[in-house]
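Q:
Just now I want nothing more than another pair of eyes on a protein record. Here is the record:
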Amino acid sequence: MNVIRTMSKGVSAKGEPVTIRFGSRTIETMAGQSVLGAMVAAGEMVCRTTATGAQRGMFCGMGVCQDCVVDIDGVGNQRACMTQVRDGMIVNPLPARPQSVSGIAASETLQLSPELLVVGGGPAGLAAAAVAAEAGLDVLLLDERPKLGGQFYKQPAEGFAIDEHNVDKQFRGGRALIRRFVNSGARYFSNMTVWGAFGTEQIVASSQTTVVVVAPKRIVLATGAYERGIPLPGWTLPGFMTTGAMQTLLRSYQVAAGKRILIGGNGPLNLQVAAELVQAGVKVVALTEAASQPGLRSAASLLTMAISSPDLVRDGLAYQSVLRHAGTPTFHRHAVIRADGTSAVERGVIAAIDDSGKPVRGTEQTFDVDAICVGFGFLPSNEIARALGCHHHFDEDRRSLAAERNDSGRSSLAHVWVVGDSGGLGGARIAEASGVIAGADIAQDLGHRASDKIEVGHSKRTIVRSKKFQSALWTLYKAPQIVDQLAEPDTIVCRCENITLAAVREALTQDPATAGAVKRLTRAGMGPCQGRYCGAIIVDLVAQERKTKIEELSFFAPRVPFKPVPIAMMPECSPKEESPINSETATPDQSSNSEQRSGVRTKTA
């Protein structure tokens, strides 16, 4: 496969390379690189084979879809996107019937009782943890990713040096927030997946070697969001991925998954990633946008955006300028309708869509490509909040669940705050500001000294401005709601269990026609991703079939474990006493020299 190794502005390689084995190949890569990043840089896109013999590769790039699982050193079902390379590591694609996961067992179980537990190391979680720790609270943060920053502030891997003065503002903003968090004195584990919530007094998480059982006084859930899946023919082929996955490859691992890439969907992230790919030397063959092209009727929305967040408007204009100068065609009110290829993506087909979101016959155009990335917005990662019992309602505008919470982020459970996109989609600025407000509110709730009222006030004003911007933005990007209009009867809807649209529609003819009934009849939603990609589609199909309103109980119920975890990593009822972990003693420091100078240290559980 054609790939492009690139370097973002202000990012450069450092240190000695490491060598891993993939199948029969020896791959040289950089320290801190994910297994998936190393694979893609070497042109290896196939991670596993399904029970039907189909090949799969990366899709979400953030540990949600479970399509990139591989065998690492004889242990199967390891997520390539969430596992860092080690020198001498042996990686193999996962066969259709892998042997049982062996060789994984907890070396220790820790019982921790912080005043505040924060789940998630993105903008909202880092801000909440930093503000609370600065106010004197004992704060513990758990994050699933190898590096802090989350999906928005995603940082380059350890094998890259960072010039703080030359990286873009997204990198800089993330590094500044991470630095503040580390300097606050908050404790943290990275590479730590929260998979169980047995009441607010027992939150359970695991890394490769350690189980942590947490009994906090207060909880902040800042688990972010993941990209909405829209089924279409070929969307399970290796080389077809979300726009966010492509951006992670580019920004964190400095590689583009092809020299010719097609991008489509709905929303500004597609525009940004298209421009970033062009700047990296990629030929973006086309960008499709489901919304209509802005015209005179968009003037009011554009003015509101320019007043509330002029810098973001400038960014959007700059992205458009990059694409215009590169000659990249943009097709409004169009969608990617099919991906073709034998064992991986080779061609992409686009077409105009009508007001109902269906492709218009006779408007198809085909492009030869190495990869396709599609983004149709996001869905909140709310399984922990829902499992704990936080009330949610269905947001008709964003077509997703939103947590019921007050202005400080406090949920219907007195000891739980839900901040950022996990509680309702709003973007990075609202997420970070809501984290500041929640951290200050929790500090006051626990009787600690008052936080900086000026910062809290600024954060509240930021939220007001950003909500105006977001409202105008999504008026500008208003598009037909696409659910199954791009799919054929034999198109897979449930990626994990290989359940087709025809099978789902047949289940909908039964009584009762509910998402739960579809799940029982077809196994849709029973796979490793637990319905994160098919669930919202099935809920929409049920609502269309039965002409019913969508509410929280319309969705699949969250189940423990929230993500696959080896049985050997499940704790017994007698964990050890609390162990003093902090940013100095959690694990050996794997930070870069530039991070050490700046005070940023990323720890691995």
